[in-house]
Amino acid sequence: MSQIFDIVVIGAGPAGANAALTAAWAGCRVAMVDEQRKPGGQVWRAKNPVVLEAPTTPESRSGDALRQEVACSTVLTFAQSRVWQIESAASGWEIYVLKEGKVVTLVAKALILATGAREYVQPVPGWTTPGVIGLAGATAMFKQDLALPGQRTVVSGTGPLVFFVASEIRRLGGEVAAVVTPNSKREWLRAFPAMVRRPDLLVRGALWVADLYLAGVPIYWRHAVAEIDGETDVSGVTIRRLTRDWAPDGEPEFLGADSLCLGNGLTPAAEAAQLAGLELRYRADLGGWCPEVDASGETEREGLFLCGDGAGIRGAAAAEIHGKLTGETASAYVRGVAPGENHLLQQAYQRAARFGMAMTALSVPRKGLQTLMCADTVVCRCESLTRSDIVAEINAGAQSTLSVKSGLRAGMGPCGGKFCQGTISQLIAQAKGGEVSDVPPPTARPPLRPIPVAALAGDFEYDDLPIPKPAPL
């Protein structure tokens, strides 16, 4: 049975929730679908109900305020729900959702995609060892459960997230063995003009770094983790100094630790946009492959709107404003009127986007990172495919991510290629002597998320099938 709305929003983070609220305030009947228990997304993730008391942070305060607004609004939230298929229809859009083990169909005149971003982690030897966790995954642990990755942690990665994670580990009582970042101090200085536009965030970041220095935590600038030691758990990491191209160049140094937080930036989660019929373009300054969308959230598809990091990595502040702009545009479309020009909001969005893009620029991968992988380094975790497996398939004639996927099942596991496709694209580009911008991701196909066959079957019972009598001999 279908449920009919004016607008369906996929994603309840800063962008999606603000788009839904803005459209609802304009008088539209809005549904919002999200995989988490409560709105807030990754950045403003809600605390686990078992956490009775915790010190507030800027993120928790923003998230609590947003959740209160959603609770007091007319937005109908489908929490802990998975969107697995999107189709255009005569009435607009049909969105197929898995909710409590059953498939629910939502029909809407307009669809807003606010699917956010996912983390890119550069594979290195040992990165699948228990005790290794992504930087973004670590922030989810901190915000939701106040949990630590270990007792003594090396934090490695690009951009501001590496310092945020290290700071949070210390705030929650853990020990940071070292911070390891491919970025140099000079690269951070180049980002300073954009950073001064957000003095609040600039001061906060400076406090993170100052706290680490005062605590005696070593910061290895222009270094990367080259190998993780340990069989059943992490016992330490080996780091190497990097060239300007981020290739290892220098004597290895061992750091003892029982855990590692590792990340190399964010990339837009664009599979839903692909499934809805949008073409992707490569924008290194926006995190990789992303759909074409303007500041008002409009796309080339009728009744389809995008906002937030799913349209390019510009940061949480820009995503929040982009969501409001998109909510205004989508609600005007539903009402059949021309959208107004909200110049103040547009200007605020551009300012926030400049800051976010300056931070994204610190995580643009360089070709030298690929040399951190050995032949037996796992690339596709779901199918246990190594670098040598991928390279052999490329050498055998696979010239696209789709052909590698067809030949090896890379990207056909539970994660749907979210961990491996970026690395596979880079390996193909390297083999062809080209750029990663020449190697698009494979086409998106349903289901967007794993779904039980029983849910698709619904009330169907095999025992109800009429079985004809055997034909006479």
TrEMBL record:
Alphabetical list of Pfam families matching this protein: Fer2_BFD (PF04324), Pyr_redox_2 (PF07992)
Keywords on record: Oxidoreductase
All copies of domain BFD-like [2Fe-2S]-binding, residue ranges: 378-429
SUPFAM superfamilies in the record: FAD/NAD(P)-binding domain
UniProt GO molecular function: oxidoreductase activity
Residues of the FAD/NAD(P)-binding domain: 5-319
Designated name of the protein: Thioredoxin reductase
Organism taxonomic ancestry: Bacteria, Pseudomonadati, Pseudomonadota, Alphaproteobacteria, Rhodobacterales
